[in-house]
Design goal:
By secondary structure, the protein is of the alpha/beta class. It folds into two domains: about 5-100, Beta-Lactamase, CATH 3.30.450; about 115-315, P-loop containing nucleotide triphosphate hydrolases (Rossmann fold). It has helices spanning about 5-10, 45-55, 60-65, 115-120, 135-150, 185-195, 210-220, 235-245, 250-260, 290-295, 300-305, 315-325, 330-340, 340-350; strands at about 15-20, 25-30, 35, 70-75, 80-90, 90-100, 125-130, 155-160, 175-180, 200-205, 225-230, 260-270, 275-285. α6 (about 185-195) runs parallel beside α7 (about 210-220) and α9 (about 250-260) packs antiparallel against α10 (about 290-295). The chain is globular, with a radius of gyration of 21 Å.
Length: about 350
């Protein structure tokens, strides 16, 4: 068994992920559902080790054996890229490989709300894209960054672990830095960012206190900053950022965040009735009432602000779900399963 054969199967089946785990046949994820590659044998520990080590450099092999996990990316046959997390489970190597299209899809091609275009026009502020793993955060950010790249002369700096989409300079110039290969840590890279004359900074993930603090500082100094978080809603995102800090710093952080936040975009990818997956989005815009809510520590009011500010371009999860159901693209059962407020969803679908 060769890894290239499995990568080709992932690509030709239009899968989003490939899993290699001892005791199972190779598994691909298509439209959110896991499928075994039935023509392949059950993986042994030796087979998994050979498949994974075949694409690691000597330095990466050392890191993998010492740290027991590693993130990296690779090109495949000049068609696509794969973002790979190799790890150990029950003492044996395993891996999750995420397929990344070679071309960056546009906001329209991803079926994202039109308001996403507005974020490509901003000159400063913080924009957070949130949601579970595997629900399109990287693709959405890439679409916005590529729109900036095509329409504005800026220096775009990305800090990623690993580099996912490769950008080609168009109107903008682009510096892409990968953790471990190009810098030692998120904190160091973000601290250096201010000396690298960027206009736009993409932070692959705000994962801890140091990264969040550094990203806020970059946004506060007049730069346009995009970042991702693994949270489930706009309100939860605000709470997560503030709760990372010690209690005595939280009032200051609420002030910082209220000053620089521009938007929180929370999204899910759900299976479409027509095949493939479609994005369901919650959109929070940092209007004055939202900023005041953040400063005052009253994030429980955010959901209500979104609900009463739809005409400004904000969107609740239920409105997004109902729109897709009414368009005939999403089943009502799936919409209900993902809804936070099923009763409200039902009213919206019925039109009152």
């Amino acid at each position: 068994m060769e890894l290239n054969q499995l990568l080709e199967s992932t690509y030709t089946n239009n899968a989003s992920d490939l899993h290699l785990i001892v005791g199972f046949k190779p598994i691909i994820r298509v439209d959110g559902a896991l499928n075994f590659l039935e023509d392949q044998p059950v993986l042994t520990a030796e087979m998994c080790k050979e498949l994974i080590l075949s694409v690691l450099s000597p330095q990466q092999k050392d890191l993998f054996m010492v740290n027991k996990e590693i993130d990296f990316s690779m090109d495949y046959a000049q068609k696509v890229r794969f973002r790979i997390n190799a790890y150990f489970e029950k003492g044996s190597p395993a891996a999750a490989l995420r397929l990344l299209p070679a071309t960056i899809a546009t906001i329209e091609e991803l079926n994202l709300p039109r308001i996403y275009h507005r974020f490509a026009q901003l000159k400063s502020g913080l924009i957070l894209v949130t949601g579970p793993t595997g629900h399109g955060k990287s693709s959405s950010l890439a679409a916005i960054i590529e729109e900036i790249n095509k329409t504005r002369a800026e220096h775009i700096l990305t800090i990623e672990d690993p580099i996912e989409y490769i950008y080609k300079g168009r109107e903008s110039i682009i510096s892409q830095r990968e953790i471990h290969s190009d810098t030692h840590s998120w904190e160091v890279a973000l601290r250096s960012a201010l000396r690298e004359d960027p206009d736009v900074v993409l932070v692959g993930e705000m994962r801890d206190y140091e990264t969040i603090a550094a990203a806020l500082t970059v946004a506060e100094t007049g730069h346009l900053v995009f970042a991702t978080l693994h949270t489930n809603s706009a309100a939860q995102t605000i709470d997560r950022i503030i709760d990372v800090f010690p209690e005595h710093q939280q009032a200051q952080v609420r002030m910082q965040l209220s000053n620089c936040l521009e938007a929180v975009l929370s999204q899910r990818l759900l299976p479409s009735l027509e095949g493939g997956r479609i994005p369901v989005c919650e959109v929070l815009l940092a209007i004055p009432s939202v900023k005041a809510t953040i400063r005052d520590g009253k994030t429980h009011q955010i959901d209500n602000i979104i609900e009463t500010s739809l005409e400004l371009g904000m969107m609740t999860l239920e409105h997004s779900l109902a729109d897709w159901v009414k368009k005939g693209k999403l089943s009502l059962d799936i919409a209900r399963a993902w809804s936070v407020r099923p009763e409200q969803l039902q009213r919206l679908v019925k039109g009152y």
